[in-house]
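idk why but the lab printer keeps eating my pages so im just putting this in chat instead. protein + magnesium ion:
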Amino acid sequence: MPAKIPRLAIMGHPNAGKSSVVATLTENDLIAIDKRAGTTTESSVYPVIIDGRPVIEFIDTPGFQNPNAILEWFHAQGGKRELARAFVAAHRTDPLFTHDCALLEPVGEGAAIILVVDGSKRIKEKDRVEIELLRLTARPRMAILNNLTSQTRYMTQWHDALSKAFNSVREFNAHRATYGERIRLLQALKSIDQRWEPLVEEAIHAFEHDWQRRTDQAVTTIMDLLKESLTFKVSKTVKENKLVFKSGRDLVKAEVMTAFENGLRQLEVNAQEQIRANFRHHVWHMPPDSILGKDLLSEEVSHALGLSKRQLALVGMAAGAASGVTIDLSTAGHSLGAGALIGAATGGVLGFVGSKALAKLDIERAPGTQRFTAGPVHNPKFPFVLLDRIVLYSARAMNWSHGRQAAEEDAEDKVPEKVIRRGGFTEELSPQQQRDLARFFNAAKKGKSDREEECRAIIKWILHGLAVSEIDSRSDL
Ligand SMILES: Nc1nc2c(ncn2[C@@H]2O[C@H](COP(=O)(O)OP(=O)(O)OP(=O)(O)O)[C@@H](O)[C@H]2O)c(=O)[nH]1
Ligand SMILES: [Mg+2]
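predcted complex ->
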């Protein structure tokens, strides 16, 4: 016998945003949502499964077909209890009420109710019918105001009408809800019926634990990206006879540099894929001018993200002073080895980040061959840009509602985003945090792990802040 878990039936008019609410709460962006009414034609159960175990279930429904008739029947029962169950028993075989019975059945069997209304529209008679009908079921019930547009003039009326009939009334925007708001909604579910408290509490606990695990996983992905990018190199060995002419050399240089740059881009894409899967996204809308849609190595991205020149100079000095060595020993050792370093950064400038070369191109000579090596990244700003961009991506993955897939992003009256700011995260960190990051980057380049724990903690702190605040943050960048 499986353990009992909270079950919530989602009610409301066609197109009120019921499926969007379910998609957001269950992090399932594969649920059908459409701007046309009548998208959901049958009730379906969507469990939230954590560690292989369902912890809470939402039933997405098409809404009532005959609310007036049901209310009339309820009124005629003269104060009988268990009306939902009684209605189903009395109408099970009546084809006119097939859908209504499917809707009321889980309620009769103990599910609680979440009514979804669009609080930006005027209250109509049919809304009042539904509110009354749900009140009469006497089941634990909550109403959600899911506003589809920015119109707020009817909100007081809605609050008044709903609070008379529901144990809890909350604003919850299926398109804007962050993790923090989802948890707050679940917290409020506890209050709709005391008997629910332990069950809902357990579900919230599982949610929080799972979110923590996923955040940690994202931090690991980001740390791996930083380490791999900072040690990344591309080499190619070419026979000397292919390099007699300048054009031949230039060709090889260009090939190695392109492979290096593309390799870095690919590392970022791989990390993004992992984060996206980790937060269970299959689809999302990317504004055309998003910083996330631009080339990682473009001037525009390096301009928008990372530390300022001044901050960079400050952390650069601190990092240099700490190590006490200003010569890059790994390069020095290299050039004194079997092959001589001849092409360092001459003509081999790889991309630009904050007006400095991204990396060096080294050429080592051996008898009969030459080895061209691009990388590792040399530019001090790049790791900050890379970190900012992957944090931005994570912000989007964590805060982008799963119910937002069919949104009309260009609608003039859409509910406004909370706060959008074009900029990175690292420039807002404390000087100490910036210095810790700089030291970690310097160490990571050499395959060392100085300040790794501090860096991990900083990233975790940023991600945590993104998800629990009400601010939709920079996820629309
Ligand atoms: N702007 C905005 N639009 C929303 C929101 N929630 C839902 N919508 C839009 O409203 C429309 C209907 O959403 P659905 O979730 O399919 O509504 P439903 O109540 O399940 O509809 P049926 O299944 O047809 O009864 C879609 O175009 C959604 O994108 C919201 O919070 N904000
Ligand atoms: Mg639907």
